[in-house]
Amino acid sequence: MVTTRSRLPEGDSADAAVFSHWLEMLPDDFDEQDRLMLRKAGEFALAANPEQRLPSGETHMRHALSVAEVLTKLRMDRETLASALLLGVLRDPEITLDMLRRELGDSTAHMVDDLARIDLLTDLSSEVSAQEEAQHAENLRRLLLGIAEDVRVILVVVAEQLHLMRSARKLSLELRRRLAKETEEIYAPLANRLGIWQVKWELEDLALRFLRPDEYKRIASQLDGRRADRERFIKEIIELLREKFLAVGIDAEINGRPKHINSIWRKMQRKAVDIEQIFDLRAVRVLVDDIAQCYAALGVVHGLWKHIPGEFDDYIATPKANLYRSIHTAVIGPQEKTLEVQIRTREMHHHSELGVAAHWRYKENAKQDSDVERRILRMRQWLESSDEAADGPESETEATRIYVLTPKGKVVELPKGSTPLDFAYSIHTDVGHQCRGARVDGHIVQLNRPLRSGETVEVLTAKNGTPSRDWINPHLGYLHTAKARNRVKQWFKQLDFDHHVELGRAALEREMTRLSIVQKPDLEAAAAKFNLVHVADVYAAIGRGDLSPIQVAGWGSRERAEAVPKTLTEPPREQPAIKGEVVVAGVDDLMTTIGRCCKPVPYDPIIGYVTRGRGVTIHRSDCPNIRAMKNQEGDRLVKVHWSAHQQETSYAVDFLVVAGDRKGLLRDISTILTNEDIDVIGVNTSSDRKTDSARMRFTVEVHDMEQLSRLLSKVEQLPDVNLVKRLV
């Protein structure tokens, strides 16, 4: 339980002395190893910017110790306390993340890094309209959850906000109100979602005190007695109920709390009533095993005290729309004080706290978001599990979305893996079309670099800029979101049809040249297959990006593979499962060998040559050796086609790279081959000093033509590469 009472010494004691006192006052749960680690963290904190002070007048060390004190009351581990002590230390250029990692471990260093990123976002204000304000605050909360992969980081952030609010009276009126508004909109709801109730209540009360001081004083003056007295009253009620329930054989778990001032004020506003009509200023909750015990417990409560007419709700018999179930009743308790009693089963309670009826949803009127709810559920389960606390949070809270900022501070939500180009299209279609570069946190980055939560993204545009066809190439990774890809494709569709035809024809010829495909594809058959009318429509579809050149370049071979083979001497017959990669017309399971001279790859046009004793050798149809055989040994050539049931087989293929001779070229190509999981059989390189150029011949193993096309596309994108071509 968090209280405002601190164990830190008051006055102008030196930071080092205050830190030593704090270490000595740590609970006995912290052993010598824990204290040694915290001492190391404190030494870093004492060495970092010792002369700087916060607007409240505190030194950074005093501030960090106060935050750590809050976390100590929450029974957090040494890594969390160490990261709190290290708040702001990375601003000191003499202290690096590597130093913290060596001295304090990866987990603590990672938390400090996340806290430093969040610290850069302290100015969370943004010029948003009144209609956007609620969604903007929600996005800011999600931004913090997105940055912090470890729930303990959020706990440090919330604890720091609590300490800032406790010391806010030392700030100017403007700073105090701004801090209170951020607390009300961002940090108190975060504490609420994570189930840190005492922190949440104190944050809300302090925010109300600074934002609406008159309302706060009016309600505080109307409450009978101090909060400590109300808490004592609740404790006595719990003891009495526990005794009565045991007497009738009810095994109940009972807890309670006096309603805090902010909650009272909100209920008065929502119901338009005065404080005399609020009957849950004091409330207890009773958890039992089954529904029968719920009603038995209700009988005990009504037997003890007189219930208030009109203040009884049976949400077990009639659940709410969100499936919330519980019994609520209000009674006149001891000393003629009103008391609310909620009775439910443990299963109902779990549903109300973590299921679709969770308390924070209706309190914040938040829209359902399965990703956010999943992360919050895992975080709360870890926080509530003392057995897992020592091992740190589980890793199953990884977000599937990111939250980045515009230069003006507006939060933009994107799927995880989104790039600056996705960000540009999320702002406006025209911004995406005209995008020519991006700055992330002030640094120029590539347009296909994945973004991280918390980064500030600035789009650089050209007035007459237009999309690039590379943007819709999935292998290059420029666009992650379907929405952005569709907008780029739509732009290309709106281009002049004739221009699309020319672009498509050029792209197809370039692909066939690069892959050394000589046999022209059957474009009329391709048009029919893709529900197009004319050959020109096929070219236009390639030009628009609806079809890739590789889909059309080898047209005919794949389709023959899928068809039932026919021979001149045998009628068609069923071949449900061909085991080999190549099928000889009319013959099952005949031994075949891939020709080394032309190295065909699925789905090159191919032909077979019947050898003496080694089965059939498979060649490309345009192989020079085959052309020489047609006149002399034409009777030994047989029709073959690729099997429709390809096995996981690799095929050797050669390709040539001509590029400017530079350092690192071979390394860059090797990186692409490694990332594509392609094995290299041979490499032959040569350099021409006169032209300052390099020629590289690679022999690699690929599964099919599509993998080869993808490889050549990526190599072609490397700097200084002039030509990439398959060799046959």
Features:
Ubiquitin-like (UB roll); Hypothetical protein af1432; Beta Polymerase, domain 2; 728 residues; 6 domains; alpha+beta
Please summarize what this structure is.
Helix content is 45%, strand content 16%. The protein has 728 residues and is of the alpha+beta class.
What can you tell me about this protein's structure?
With 728 residues, the chain is an alpha+beta fold. It folds into six domains: 197 residues, Hypothetical protein af1432, CATH 1.10.3210.10; 131 residues, Beta Polymerase, domain 2 (2-Layer Sandwich); 73 residues, Beta-grasp domain (Ubiquitin-like (UB roll)); 59 residues, no CATH class; 83 residues, no CATH class; 77 residues, Alpha-Beta Plaits. Helices cover 45% and strands 16% of the residues. It has 28 helices and 20 strands. A five-stranded mixed beta sheet has the order 1-2-5-4-3. Strand 18 and strand 19 form a beta hairpin. Helix 3 runs antiparallel to helix 4 and helix 5 runs antiparallel to helix 6. The longest helix is centred in the first third of the chain and has 21 residues. The N and C termini lie far apart (76 Å). About 6% of the residues have low confidence.
